[in-house]
Specification:
Layout lengths: L1 H27 L3 H6 L29 E4 L9 E4 L4 E7 L2 E6 L2 E2 L7 E10 L7 H6 L18 E5 L5 E3 L10 E3 L3 E2 L2 H10 L5 E4 L10
Parallel strand pairs: 2-11, 5-9, 8-10
Antiparallel strand pairs: 1-4, 2-3, 3-4, 6-7, 6-11, 7-8
Amino acid sequence: MNTIRILKAAAAIATVVVATTFTTSASANPFFFLDQIFQGPQMQAPDEQAMPGIDEPTQAPARFRRALVDIRTHEAPGTIIIDTPNTYLYLVLGNGKAIRYGIGVGREGFTWSGTQAISRKAEWPDWTPPAEMIARQPYLPRHVAGGPGNPLGARAMYLGNTIYRIHGTNDPSTIGGRVSSGCIRLTNEDVIDLYSRVNIGTKVVVLPVHARTAAY
């Protein structure tokens, strides 16, 4: 009889300990058990930024909204200038004016600079991750058809023979960030606007991350 009572008391104490542990962990992190279950890698977007969920995305900060601005440049009208340090893209109009767009750029170790030209344009492009990205993230899908859920967004402009693109994004909150593997991203609204203004062959000047861009 005493043995049974001891076993019941031990069971009651264990229940209290488990409940207390659960309460403490859950209070610190309401997704405690989800975190324990989903410890594997998350699906990533083409530039290795997490793909957006089903909720409405956060909007880009106000300072990255499309605007007509003054510019001092020797580049010809129609040229695209990627201001990597300040995360802006300029479309030169001439007469000291440009359209400025907010962008997301490459994260540390993935920025690049130089001059390219738009070699291809695509509406609602498919996404096929390049081999370099698959090597880093083998769990990525090998192909995603174009559409509203595609991480390349509404439009893509391919740069020369490189793996880099100017493309849209379904996550405007990443505009202004250093988030990609070298691609330049705009909001879907802005990439549609830019796409309509440029042609295949358009010159694209990508400034280095430490460039002095006071003229823009």
